[in-house]
User: Fold these one by one.
Assistant:
Number 1:
Amino acid sequence: MINAIRAELIKMRSMPGVWVTFAIAFPLTVLICVAVLAGAGGFPGHTFYFVQTLRQRRMLLGAGYFAIEILAPIMGVLCVTGEYRHKTITTTLVLTPVRTRVLGAKVAVVALWSILIALLTLVAVAAVGLPWNAALGGVTSTVTDQVGAVVPGLVASAVLLGLFGLGFGTLVKNQVAAILIVIGGTLILESILIALARAIFHYDLNWLPNAAGAALAGDIARGFGGGGGGGERAFHLLTWWQGGLVMLLWGLVPLTIGYFTTFRRDVT
Amino acid sequence: MTAGAATRGLPVEFSGLTKHFGTVVAVDNLSFTVQPGRVTGFLGPNGSGKTTTLRMLLDLVHPSAGTATIGGRSYHDFENPSKIVGAVLEATSFHPARRARTHLRMVARAGGHDEKRADEVLQLVGLTEDAKRKVGGFSMGMRQRLELATALIGDPDVLILDEPSNGLDPQGIAWLRDFMRFFAGEGRTVLVSSHLLSEMAQTIDDAVIVSFGQLKAQGTLEEITSGVTGLVMRARTPEADRLCTVLTQAHIAFRRLGHDEVAMDAVRPEQVGPLLASNQIVLYELTQEGADLESVFLSLTAGLGFGQLAPRP
């Protein structure tokens, strides 16, 4: 297993697509920091203001979540679909014929790289978000006090979203289709379904991937939890552990189905 | 082959191997053994099941029935198979953005070998100067060499090659031939599939011929070329017309090669000599020829897979 993991690490390091996700993670996080600081004030003459409420402070610290929810699943997809796209699956399985071992190594490596993406977003917050917040008059310690509340959920979300991408990549095999399903499904289709379910059935589809990830990540997730303005009732999120469990299922179910239906198939 | 080296190779055994793809029978009850210390050619027309058979051996394709083993063990059962078996399957299984050396480092890691092996095998296949180039820019021949380097990373006892000459230039083919001979000379096992029969005839010790997934012949090259269709007798005579009449009456197959030359198939001198003497046919020349690999192959496979050569109705 260790050998397979080492090989997968080299594969990931030598895939340009993976580095593109890293290159995007930093500026995307900075962009969200800008949005959080722009939305914090609302005082006349101030476009940006330092974060004040607990939710704003956590949102600044976890500004990387938006980058993570897009990039971690893409990385998971790339890790497995790249093997089929470039036919390297033949070499991989000749070197490691036990297919569960190959998939296990991919899970480990995607988890590791997802954690690295999460850490990179935290670096972006530390390098840009916090100094800027301090320059606007904010006290940095009031933000860093929330590390315990934000970072574990952020990192866990990254790992489970990476697993989610790996699961669908294993199931679908086609790289473009898998990325469209994972990203289009969570960012577009899920939003539409949630809105329709709320409007028609007054039901919160809080077990869909993004909503479950938001529950795990707590207050930092955009679009959920803080609703209720203008008389609209608040979106009912799962608890953090329920969200984590549901996210785990969103990764493991397609991974298991993909293993039995696709990954075990003949490589001709 | 040295006595010590003889312990390196392992026999490769196929027993009742069968593969169905839906209603298509790709491999049909195939049984044969590949011996260590010899280069065995695995020959057959396109679509005859060669690649499927090799992929079943390497556990990439699951057999519908039968077994394929290396030294009595299934490929799936080897903890680090690259130490036992090296396989060259297709020259396209590389990530184009990966550098040759990075690819081999990855392969070395997967097999539990020292990453220094990457440089050693690059040197072995003559790609040292291209080690830092991305594989996407490699020619077909260079990719074949890299695929061979991949197979050799664990210094294996058994080498499986599927059409390894594809894309190689004449120097590359000659190098590959020498390499396979050297490898088998160390007592190791080489199983090579190819459709380049003239090339194979210069390289292999044993041949296995398949058609429509079925075994048609197996043996040493000499056995195959002399024992399947038998020998060809070529006669030069001023009485070629009368000879043809005599052969027809004796139910011996023949071909008229020229105005004074006739070839008789699947006969031996002991049959032809007395027949010609009893009919008092004057001979200028009577020679015995063995069938070459290509003619044996075509007769066994009945030209299947080579539609352009099939007789017109």
Number 2:
Amino acid sequence: MTKILIKNKKVKENWKRNFLTFFPKEKKGLMDDFTDLLSFVLIISMVGFIAVVVLRTDASDKTEQTLERIASFQGQEALLDLVNSLALLEDKEVVMKDVIISAVNANNEALFREKMQAYFEQQQMEGGVGVYDSVSYGTEEEPTPLLSYDVVVFNGEVIARGKEKGAIYLTNVHGEGNKKLLVVKLFS
Amino acid sequence: MNSKGALFHWIGIVVILVLAFAIFSPVEFGVKPKGTWQLDFLQYNFIEGKKQLADADQLALEVGRKTVLSLAEKGGFADAPSCGSDGEINYWNRGQDFCFLNVDESVNAEFNSLYKKYDKTVSFTVSRQGKELIGKTDKEILLGQKNAQFYVLNSGFRVNFGYDFDEYFKLQDQAKKMVNECKAASNIQDCVEKVKPSYWKFSSCENAQFAAKGQKVHFCVESPEKYTIFENGRFVPVQYKFGLDFGMN
């Protein structure tokens, strides 16, 4: 386009004049403009740098969030596998949900621990599992479990209970009061 | 200031304004998490659905177990049969006419009747396949209703409780044979003692004692396959209770 325009002699001269006046003849003005240009380039560079750093950090944070969510699914799948797994009682097969519900109703912590230990060892899992009544689970900040099992214990005391991996509600048809609905939680 | 130099100042101001807009505007700039929709779908629908199904299956399993024990107590009839009953004991025959058990119908009726105690809003069409019980229903569970998206889950079930209802047919064949052989016997007790399998007991499975009301005898029959049902932390043996009429009419 420019080439077409400057074919016209008059236009060509105008363009040359305009281009030259872009750079002022006075040195003071030249320095001012140069400083402005330098500042501008500096600002743009800084903004660009900050934007890249922020975006990279943001991207890294978001990727971490996504990975955490994916990991939480694995935890919830592990919980589902646990409650749906088969367990032996009196040499007969039942599902782990039966064991959990029976242990709660009979307040049989030994049975619960024995079956959980067998499962955790078989699956080479770490962490723990807790069973709560749904009322205290829903209302208390740190509810006391009806039954619990933890792999990481020292002198009978749980050193630190890990992060919650998942929770599931189970209807207890034989339960009474608060125990009619149970919550099973798996910890890392 | 030189008017040409002012251009750069204006550009700087514009950049600052754009940055201010980016910071204060409600529009989110930056990197968005990957797979948000997919992860939301998995969390609020797929995983949640699996959790609800795990609970629903357990409830169905428990009710199925209760159905087995309850039906066995009533000789396999969900309702009083046309052959009559004596208290809680249902008769399988009246003279030579047998009230044929419709096991599928009985299982369906008894299961739904027991399930109503836990959820009155749902009704299942229950069928059996070997040792499995299958329940189908029109009721749908609505999950993860977020904006216009929602996930519908069919609340049917398929549970294995290690018991086969076909055992009733075996017992009914044995009952027919016994009635045929002992209908004309002068001493019903002696005759039945000779022909009945060992797992057939008179009146009670724990304390067998012959007692007849006219020609009608009550039985408690232990499961031929020695089935037990897990009920509230213990294995309960399946015991069928019913009566047979050895009369000629």
